[in-house]
Amino acid sequence: MPPSTPRTTLDRLRTPRRFPKFLRAASLCVLIAGLLSPLSQAAAADTSTEAAANDYCGGQCSDILPPGENGNATLAQILLNQVFGTQPSHAEDQLGLYGNLPSGSSGLTDAKINNFFNDSSFGVAANQVESTTKPGGRTDVTIVRDKKTGVPHITGTTRYGTEYGAGYAAAQDRLWLMDVFRHVGRGQLTSFAGGAASNQGLEQEFWRNAPYTEADLQAQIDEATSRAGARGAQALTDANAYLDGINAYIDASDSGRYFPGEYVLTGHKDSITNAGTIDHFKLTDLVALASVIGSLFGSGGGGEVNNALSLLAAQNEYGVTEGTKVWEAFRERNDPEAALTVHGGESFPYAARPDSPQGEALPDAGSVTQEPLVYDRTGSAATASATSASATAAKTSLTSAKRGMSNALVVSGKYTASGHPIAVFGPQTGYFAPQLLMLQEIQGPGLSARGASFAGLSMYVELGRGQDYSWSATTSGQDIIDTYAVELCQDDYHYLYHGTCTAMDKVERTNSWKPTTADGTAAGSYRMQVYRTKYGPVEYRATVGGKKVAYTTLRSSFMHEADSIIGFQMLNDPDYVKSPATFQSAVQNINYTFNWFYADSAHTAYYNSGDNPVRANGVDAEFPVWAQAAYEWQGWDPATNTATYTPASAHPNSVDQDYYISWNNKQAKDYTTASWGDGSVHRGDLLEDRVSKLVAAGGVTRSALVKAMADASVADLRAEDVLPNLLKVVNSSPVTDSTAADAVSKLSAWVTAGAKRTETSAGSHTYANADAIRILDAWWPLLVKAEFQPGLGNDLYTAFGNNLPVDEAPSAGHGPTGSHAGSSFQFGWWSYVDKDIRSVLGQPVQGGLSRTYCGGGSLSACRDALISSLKEAAGKSASTVYPGDDQCSAGDQWCADSIVQRTLGGIKHGKITWQNRPTFQQVVEYTSHR
Fold first, then answer.
1. Which distant-in-sequence residues (6+ apart) come within 8 Å of 106 by Cβ?
2. 167 CA to centre of own chain
3. What is the pLDDT of residue 33?
4. CA-CA distance, 608 to 112, in Å (whole number)?
5. Looking at residue 4, what is its pLDDT?
6. Regarding beta strands 347-350 and 491-497, do their DSSP bridges make them parallel or antiparallel, or are they unpaired?
7. Are strands 594-599 and 653-655 parallel, antiparallel or unpaired?
8. Interior angle at CA 100, CA 99 and CA 104, nearest 5
């Protein structure tokens, strides 16, 4: 057994006997009194640490990842947390730093940045070493953890030892979470963790998009590593060493009985005899994990059937010609007013509308039905909450409005005070306990990096810094998913492939569960079933011109979940990444759809990654097409799901632009993304407006760029960019109604104050301008309906709402993100309202809607509609606007907006005030270069 695995006294508490009553405080006190284990002893902290690899940041690199590095807890620690709120060491010591930024950013200076971030310099000062571990008793790797955050700093003298240490550290910090998500990726979460409706929905959402067999997972490993030559072989060796480290920790924690307590609470381990097993990890688990992450954040596209339905609704409402114009205007494929990441006028055409579309397979009216996923429900799987979770999961997995999130602000050294580039950037991956990401520093042969990686995939740092450069990503969302209409033959489970009637492959998962201490959901079971074709899994069935078809979705990253490992390996290699060009070369090996940003001491760079298929001439990526050879991707091989992809030069890319901003906005001119909403008002504008002003003034500092990000993070996009013109319409004549006048006065005062959602003072849990915020939250969906439904008609208005949600306010429990998730204002009708209201006011509009909707274009009629809906909104009480949920009582506005670390294990954390910013975030300014 290794000499050092637990990190604190509480970490050494044995896993205790099962509790009949999970939260019985008196019993807990008795339990704690006798649970110190003699089996595991923490090694004394070293008084020195080996010098890390060269660090060229000069103490000017910082990062943050709430709630804390430690995501494992014994059962005793879980019970202490549930009853008394105590936290395991380093479980939430980054949450306060992160949560305090909104109230503390106004007085921020460069010297105060690390009041809200961690110093991310390489290495650990001798007097800051908390513990030193030689995992598995090895002599070729050391894990040093620092006192402030407990982040593992892994230093190896051999490549194998380094990766072994990375796996061991990952298991120390995230073993339970890793186990949860390898089961999510296989569609087996409920059998592992319990049958709660949320668990049912989670496994269904991901398995629908990636219904892999064990053979499929292994085939992806074989294919990815064989195609990449020497780097592929090294990746396979690294992954095996990483797994050895994970499994060594499993064995050590099992025999020492300091494994995560969730294993007892879910019935996998016996607290008295220690019977039961924690299964070792294997290579295919890593692919299952990667499929979840890729589906969440890196797979743009889909939604073609919904697009077809809204187009048909528009044509039904207005006729084919005019209806198509209406649809295209709302689609905003290439809106001239959209915020751009590459803003110098460069054009990168992709997924443009063809002049003469070919092969479209639009469904017959009323014929579309969604392919069922769940069958043979028993027990609690048949309840209303379970079927509702299934419906939500299906909607989320089939929409083009994917979770985008993440932002980046990067300024060229030409415009900074120091002359060195500055970047503030990070992924917005939601908030969980433990967090999906984990921090680490890894130093070894061919490896030198610090930053964040998804738990269970941390053999390399995925977002972070090297010796003299930093990199980060945002979700890009360009379309790498197409929908094909496969013509059925013989029966509903055979289809025509190149003229031959071919059987579909059926892939199944049967899950069952029973109540446990952790999840008391009654016993239940169901079977998930997906039919797969050469053109991907079946998602819908319909008729096209009277012919029975199945609509399938073909994703370029399907069966290629492991391919991106080569790009991440390169990013960690100090001998590979030395410049913007080598950075761009590295991320070209990442097949997921991301925007990648780079900064060193002299240069900045950007590249948009993803395997963008070259479509057949005339194919419109927006709609389903016939599954025929003429309309397939160019060079497509169904046996390997490979195709001809657009060359690197065709992807939006840039070096040393004056500045870059990204908040999942449009990448560049003529580059169409799959999701709707890239128009005149986008949350990217919140960054664009602030960063462009800083650059125009010059002398940008790290603190100034952080303040710009922090200011945007508490801004209400609707109030900042749309509300002023709405008030112009309302105030075009005197407002005589007292209710409306009072509402207008409050909204106007809020706009004047800056249109922020901020507390009256730090920790007050009450918003300044609370009434105005409540009014706008209530008004927005009402005003959108009053503005557009009369002109669009109910069917088309509803269809467009399926393409793009109307609103995504912080407190909204609808839309792709949901409530308490921080990320807000990604998807909504703000651009439509903006363009339409500007038209009513007679202001110039580029790329306007095909007609004016508010009041039929009449200023007075539009004003009447707005005032009527405003009066209705003003009359809605706080308890109506914020109805309460499992976290908040009805009417609690601050709580409704607040960020909650959603529990994926047994440890809970407190709420923090709302802010719309990356979960993991870096602030960097390098002073020199190799």
1. 707
2. 23
3. 34
4. 33
5. 39
6. unpaired
7. unpaired
8. 150
Contacts of 484 by beta carbon, 8 Å cutoff, 6+ apart: 361, 535, 536, 551, 552, 554, 624, 625, 626, 627, 631
- What confidence tier does 307 reach under pLDDT thresholds 50, 70, 90? very high
If phi over 0 gives left and psi between -120 and 50 gives alpha, with beta otherwise, what is residue 249? alpha
> DSSP state, 648?
G
- d(CA 190, CA 202) in angstroms, rounded, equals 9
Confidence of residue 405 (pLDDT cuts 50, 70, 90): low
Residue range 395-408: average pLDDT? Answer: 68
Q: 583: burial class by Cβ within 10 Å (0-12, 13-18, 19+)?
A: buried
Give the H or E element holding residue 483: strand 481-489
Model confidence pTM above 0.85 = yes
Q: Cα separations (Å) of 860 from 86, 734, 787?
A: 59, 12, 13
Residue 27 reports pLDDT greater than 90: no
Q: What is the mean pLDDT of residues 777-795?
A: 98
Identify which of 866, 35, 845, 194 has the alpha carbon closest to the alpha carbon of residue 525.
194
The pLDDT confidence band at residue 11, using thresholds 50, 70 and 90, is very low
Q: What DSSP designation does 630 have?
A: G
How buried is 617 (Cβ within 10 angstroms: 0-12 exposed, 13-18 middle, 19+ buried)?
A: exposed
Vertex 637: Cα angle to 632 and 639 (nearest 5): 130
Please name the residues in contact with 129: beta carbons below 8 A apart, sequence gap of 6 or more: 45, 46, 47, 48, 49, 144, 145, 146, 147
Q: Give DSSP secondary structure letters for 350-399.
A: ESPPPSS--SB-PPPTT--EEPP-EEEEEEGGGSHHHHHHHHHHHHHHH-
CA distance 540 to 770: 44
Q: Is the pLDDT of residue 43 over 50?
A: no
Greatest alpha-carbon pair distance for the chain in Å reads 81
DSSP codes, 319-354: -HHHHHHHHHHHH-TT-TTS-BSS-SS-EEEESPPP
Q: What are phi and psi of 70, to 5 degrees?
A: -80, 110
pLDDT value for 393? 80
C-alpha triplet 926, 928, 930: angle, nearest 5°: 120
Beta strands in 778-888 (DSSP E): none
Spatial separation of the C-alpha atoms in residues 206 and 528, rounded to whole Å = 12
Exposure string (b/e) for 36-66, b if CB count within 10 Å is 16 or more?
Answer: ebeebebeebeeebeebbebbbeebbbbbbb
Mean predicted confidence (pLDDT) in 662-672: 96
Instruction: Quote the crossing angle between the two packed helices 25-33 and 75-84, to the nearest 10°.
Output: 140
Q: Take residue 114 and report the two structure tokens written for it.
A: 């690390």
Structure tokens given for 186? 């296989």
Q: Which residue has the tokens 């809200």?
A: 116
Across residues 438-463, what is the average pLDDT? 97
Torsion of CA 144, 145, 148, 150, to 10 degrees: 160
Nearest to 390 by CA among 193, 665, 199, 674: 199
Report residue 869 as tokens. Answer: 């809906």
Rounded Cα–Cα distance for residues 894 and 898 (Å): 6
In this structure, how many other beta carbons lie within 10 angstroms of the beta carbon of residue 274? 14
Residue with tokens 């005070």: 417
Confidence bin at 295 (pLDDT 50/70/90): confident
User: Average pLDDT, stretch 183-200?
Assistant: 94
Q: Which residues face 902 on adjacent strands?
A: 432
Polymer length of the chain: 930
Tokens 């105060």 belong to residue: 112
Return the pLDDT at 44.
32
Structure token digits, residue 271 = 């607290």
